[in-house]
Design brief:
- With 316 residues, the protein is α/β, with parallel strands linked by helices.
- The longest helix has 14 residues, at 120-133.
- Helices cover 28% and strands 28% of the residues.
- Strands 3, 4, 5, 6, 7, 14 and 15 form a seven-stranded mixed β-sheet that branches.
- Bound molecules: NADP nicotinamide-adenine-dinucleotide phosphate.
């Protein structure tokens, strides 16, 4: 099979190569991958030198079950599936992958493979940040910093779904998308810093960007919460080590470590199939162009998700 192998000596670090297709173990399925999306997790791991065992990145896949191990209970050959493989060694930038059945759910028939692959990690991260860490409530004022990327575009839609009043912080090129998603207020960070508005928020999601912890603290209401999802490494490190000293009172700082989860992915798929939220797909590439796709995400200004269409028959 063809796969994109991490190769330190290659100019893009990623190289298209012919590798052996593995057979599924007892509790695994073999999936023919139709589409896989690129995540900041691929990019960050690559930059930090955290390389998957088989040297193949790519976590969010949508494809068709081609073979099943003898102990597989949930899936049959021909089933269309979607899942996040990040807890199971990645392997999505390839024509085929073998993975434990517990990493997968059935893909709704109404969604194309391309659409389905844009969903798992970004949307579940946004959901766990807003609901689990942020305890989002109807009517709350919510600020999403870094609203334009994969996680951010899901976060603004989910916050609206939870009936919050949403303010999105994004660059100029994402303003139109935020308007299209019916965000209540938009702060273009090229023109204004959210800390200058003197507005206060019940919940802040720090998805991207680099602000001081005291900036977040001053923009919170007296019992507000900031959830650190991503952004600069220095922001993350300061949150982990100094967060409790900067936030000693009723204001809370929480750091998210999202975990792939069937129930959460199914919750999102139900919202997408009901037309309540939708993945925003910026660009799509072929498997051969994976290096370009990763480079584009690495530049840090993707508008929603970037997808790699592995099989020709991906679009319904
Ligand atoms: N905690 C967890 O468990 C977890 C899970 C998944 C992801 N993450 C992290 O979450 C972050 C976002 O992931 P992602 O998949 O959404 O990444 P992404 O798609 O690559 O995000 C790119 C977006 O970030 C925006 N951005 C860049 N600089 C910004 C700034 N200074 N202020 C505001 N927005 C800015 C860009 O929009 P503009 O062009 O508008 O600037 C772009 O749309 C990453 O740091 C990732 O590592 C954490």
């Amino acid at each position: 099979m063809k796969a994109i192998i991490y190769d330190k000596s290659h100019k893009d670090l990623l190289k298209l190569q012919e590798v052996e297709k593995t057979a599924p173990k007892e509790n695994e399925v073999l999936i023919k991958i139709h589409s896989v999306s690129v995540n900041a997790a691929d990019v960050r791991s690559m930059k930090m030198g955290i390389i998957p065992k088989n040297k193949i990145f790519g976590s969010d896949i949508a494809g068709v079950v081609e073979a099943v191990g003898i102990n597989v209970k949930k899936f049959f050959i021909g089933d269309e599936v979607v899942g996040d493989l990040s807890a199971h060694g990645f392997g999505g930038f390839a024509e085929y992958v073998t993975v434990v059945e517990s990493a997968l759910v059935l893909k709704p028939k109404s969604l194309s493979f391309e659409t389905a692959s844009a969903i798992p990690m970004s949307s579940v991260t946004a959901l766990q940040a807003l609901r689990n860490k942020g305890n989002i409530q109807p009517g709350q004022k919510v600020l999403i910093c870094g609203a334009g990327g994969g996680v951010g575009t899901f976060a603004v839609q989910l916050a609206k779904h939870f009936q919050a009043e949403v303010t999105a912080v994004c660059g100029k090129s994402n303003v139109a998308i935020m308007k299209d998603l019916n965000v209540d207020h938009i702060i273009n960070y090229n023109e204004k810093n959210f800390t200058q508005s003197n507005k206060q928020y019940d919940l802040i999601l720090a998805v991207n960007g680099n602000y001081s912890l005291s900036d977040y603290k001053s923009a919170l209401t007296s019992k507000g919460t900031v959830v650190i999802v991503g952004g600069s490494l220095s922001q993350l490190i300061k949150s982990i080590f100094f967060g409790k000293f900067v936030f000693p009172g009723n204001k809370k700082l929480r750091v998210l470590s999202a975990k792939p989860n069937h129930a959460d992915l199914q919750f999102i798929l139900n919202l997408v199939t009901a037309g309540r939220i939708r993945p925003i797909i910026d660009r799509s590439y072929s498997l051969e162009q994976t290096g370009e796709a990763v480079k584009y995400v690495m530049e840090g200004h993707a508008k929603g998700k970037v997808v790699i269409n592995v099989a020709e028959s991906t679009k319904l």
